[in-house]
Amino acid sequence: MSQIIQNLFPEMNISVASLPATLLLSALPHWYSIYLAQSNGVQGGWSNQNPRAFVARLNAKAGSGKKLTDLEETILRGQSAQQNGFEWWPVWAAAVAFGYLSNVPLADMNQYTLIHLSMRMVYNYLYVTTKTRRASYLRTIVFQALKCGIRFIL
């Protein structure tokens, strides 16, 4: 696999480009949540004036024991997926920096980067669409794979 990636990106360090790409991938579930809330009129639509209050109201509804609709649950999972991505971005950025500073071969860095970006896309999809506890374990496995890519660099 490393040879294929080296042929595709012979002298390009895509790990640095992955930093803004990872932020973009992390924001996608948030934008999807906004679309769902706005287009379906959930709680009157997305409140861009106070977006945290919108999410807090959904969380309060869930915390009070009231049943959330499938749509409301999807919106909350989208917000959680975004939060997870933003929380983990500094870890990925540090891994890229340490990999660069410790002279990890470019082909290896590119391979880890493509794995990281691919797993982040899969993870976001699973986070937003998973509705059962049993299926959530697959999301956990993908998250562990994300962390493994970082461990290889470090």
Automatic annotation (TrEMBL):
Primary location: membrane
Reading the lineage from the top rank, the first entry is: Eukaryota
Q: Which GO terms describe its cellular component?
A: membrane
Q: Where in the cell is it found?
A: Membrane
Q: Which UniProt keywords apply?
A: Membrane, Transmembrane, Transmembrane helix
Check the record and name the PANTHER family matching this protein: BLR7753 PROTEIN, INNER MEMBRANE PROTEIN
Write the protein's name: Uncharacterized protein
Supply the source organism for this entry. Bionectria ochroleuca
